[in-house]
Amino acid sequence: MKDTNQSLNSPALTTPQESLQEINQTSDETGCSDETGCTDETGCSDETRFTDETGCTENMTEILDDVTTDAQERTVPLIEAPDNFDKETMALENEAGNEYEAENTEELLFDESGNDAVREFQTRLAVGRTSSESAAQAASAFQLSSTSSTPRHSDSLSGSVQLKKKHGGGSGSGDPPVFKGKKRKKPKRKLYVTIIQRTLFIVFLLVFLTGLTGGIFFYWAAQGTPEWDAAKLETHKYASIVYDKNGDKIAQLSASENRLPIKYEDLPPQLINTLLAVEDKEFYEHLGFNPIRIIKGAYNTLRNPDRPEGGSTLTVQLAKNAFIDYDDRTSRGMEGIKRKVQEIILAMEIERNYTKEEILTNYFTRISFGQGAYGVRSAARIYFGKESLADLTPPEIAMLCGLPQAPGAYNPYTYPEKAKNRRTDVLAVMRNEGIITAEDYATYKDEPFTFIEQVKEANSLNQLNLDQPGTEKKYPYFVDYVVECLMDPDMYNLTPEQVYSGGLHIYTTIDPEVQKVAEDAMANEDNFPKRPNETIPVQAALTLVENSTGNIISMVGGRNYTDQIGFNRAANGKRPPGSVAKPLIAYGPALESGRFFPSSVFDDSTSGWPVNYDNTYRGSVTMQDAVRYSINTVAVKTFTATGASYCCDFARDKMGLDVHNNYPSNALGAFEATPTQIAIAYSSFPNAGMRNKPRCVTKIIDFDNRILMEPPVQSLRAMKESTATYMNDMLRSVVTSGTGTRAQIGSWYICGKTGTTSLPEHLGGIKGNPDAWFVGYSPYYTCAVWMGYDQTDQNHYLYNEYGGNKPCHLWKTVMTAALENKEVRTQP
């Protein structure tokens, strides 16, 4: 056996064969370890093919050739380093990708200890370096470990082997011999480069798929977009305003949306800036929609379909309001997103066709502010009683600009505390945006929230129904009559769309002071008869007109107004006029015919019909006395003597009454008429025989401030002036000494006529009257009053009530108010 020390002291290993021989010689004294496959002292097993100390050179050459070839092909398994090999260096090599840069050359420094296992490991590395995985496989194949080394060399193995770069160290004094070897290297591939490439690919793929899906969805959603129609945006439904004779507003008419027109110049800068700060800060920069807000809103809507988020710009809100059906505006889930896509398309179209100023004006005109107010002008009037936007204060602007987000939730009439908090939030936005100062904010945020009561008190809004658009009006009976006349083909011939949505300014003839007195008189129970256990009250109606023009100064259609369109008894309640018809259909035609005069004598007697109301018959009486005492028999005889046809034609064609037959009973008022018809007919007497058509409107201006119409006074000759003069004298006697003495008003020249009707025979001879009338006039005005029940039966009729009693008292109350500021006249 060869001396181990001798081999370790050898200056250098010159051939791979000798290195491998050394490994075989370090096993034990027999020449082979059990691992090498040796069977005894004399030789080796067939596996190693070693027979003695020198080894089987031929076979060793083959083995080394194989090793060299495998190393060159990088398929030779790497040998696992012994425990005493520098494992840290090995780990660094593996971490670096197990391959060195091509420009570097590794150097292996052999351990001086001459450990055969280490030297064999170094030899393998010099022949051809492989990966750490191959090294492990090679070490396993050779079964090298620290246990196969001679124990006396264990200390010298530790830290004796190290790898150096070409310029990382040298062979100085005491340095062991250096074995240098070069190997082919692949370019180094950084791990993070691969990660970035893969990430970019995934991102690109996701973007592509998202874009494809979004494109398909956008195409699907766009298919249902409402067709662009500028008329829908430009044609607004503006409320029409009704004014009294003094030019003060008394009603606002709107079919469904209470809206008033505005111009951009009407919008205060503070109002514009506040709304944009709250609703759409990027209004002047975007092209109709804000992508970030839309995506966020759509995402949150998908997450919670029951609480959709808008993220809408002002233009999108305008598009939704103008083009999207009301029922579709609250769509949820995918339908909500689909609707949002359609709104965006329409918003972009709006931006393409209109300027920012036009869009803002349209928004402020169309958008809902709650409480039936569409547009900021309607909102300013309803909430603050202000007609001009320039009069709005910062707190009022803050409240208005806070409403569009949720008009119902911040309704100050319903939720005053929420509305106040919302106002404070908007004031804070105004402060932050520099619209108001910090000092202003400190003042305004604590301002009392009592404007609602102030508005009610200042504008008498307690008389208006603010909860139902279309019913917001003072003097409701008169306003209903105005609307009816506006749409009457024989009068003003306007369409309902024009009246309720045309933005008209309608100036009327109503005198608010007289109207208030009339309504108060109607509400006073002392002015009406009472019946025991009465559940249905007596009704009444009156109309007061100006003699010279036919203008309606006051009109009340009943004691209460309960319906949206209440039954107007003054304009539409046709009842038999009784004795008030006699001057219109009997005595007036007789005088007009020229055959009779006030002094003409008639026989007051009866053959069974008609009968006088007091069952008194006076024999020969003049026409004037017959009028003064309201004698029925003379009225019928005058009607017959003049000619029934002539009299009925006169009443119908000259006096405007609805008389359709020539019955003698018409002389006693058997036909039907309204208080308005009676008042207009009687007004021809003090007007020198000229009858004017009733007029309730003096001027109509459209929303562009152009005069649409100025209805003129329409007069016709009803009778000769002499006929009117005769009738004035006879009707004057009724008030001075006849059945209407309660109608006297100081020294005023007052004329009038009482009237009652009889109960029908089928009620069994009950004594009473279904209707009681009084009509009277002064040189300025004529007023007709009717009183009775809507439905007459055995339990509902007037008992001991005549035209000269309660109806006359009601008439006098209203007429006195009308004449209060007039110069007293004692002649017609």
Verbal overview:
The protein is of the alpha+beta class and 828 residues long. The chain is 40% helix and 10% strand. A five-stranded mixed sheet has the order 5-4-8-14-15. A five-stranded antiparallel sheet has the order 10-9-19-18-17, with helices on both faces. It has a three-stranded antiparallel sheet with strand order 2-1-3, with helices on one face. It is elongated, with a radius of gyration of 56 Å. The model is unreliable at 1-64, 71-81, 95-114, 126-183, 326-330 and 458-471 (pLDDT under 50).
What descriptive keywords fit this protein?
828 residues, alpha+beta, 5-stranded mixed beta sheet, 5-stranded antiparallel beta sheet, 19 strands, 40% helix, disordered N terminus
Number of helices: 30
Strand percent estimate:
5-15%
> Compute the gyration radius: what is it?
56 Å
Q: Order of strands in the sheet with the most strands?
A: 5-4-8-14-15
Unreliable residue stretches: 1-64, 71-81, 95-114, 126-183, 326-330, 458-471
The total count of strands amounts to: 19
Largest sheet: 5 strands, mixed
In short:
With about 850 residues, this protein is of the alpha+beta class.
Layout of strands and helices, then pairs:
Elements: H1 4-8, H2 16-25, H3 57-72, H4 87-95, E1 107-109, H5 116-127, H6 132-142, H7 154-157, E2 163-164, E3 178-180, H8 191-222, H9 230-234, E4 240-243, E5 249-253, E6 258-259, H10 269-279, H11 291-303, H12 314-323, H13 333-353, H14 356-366, E7 373-374, H15 376-384, H16 394-402, H17 416-432, H18 438-444, H19 451-459, H20 476-486, H21 496-501, E8 505-508, H22 512-523, E9 539-546, E10 552-556, H23 569-572, H24 582-593, E11 601-604, E12 619-622, H25 623-628, H26 632-642, H27 644-654, H28 675-682, E13 690-692, E14 697-701, E15 707-709, E16 715-717, H29 721-737, E17 751-756, E18 771-777, E19 781-788, H30 806-818
Parallel strand pairs: 4-8, 6-7
Antiparallel strand pairs: 1-2, 1-3, 4-5, 8-14, 9-10, 9-19, 11-12, 13-16, 14-15, 17-18, 18-19
Helix pairs in contact: 2-3, 2-5, 8-13, 10-16, 11-13, 12-13, 12-14, 16-17, 17-18, 22-30, 24-26, 24-27, 24-29
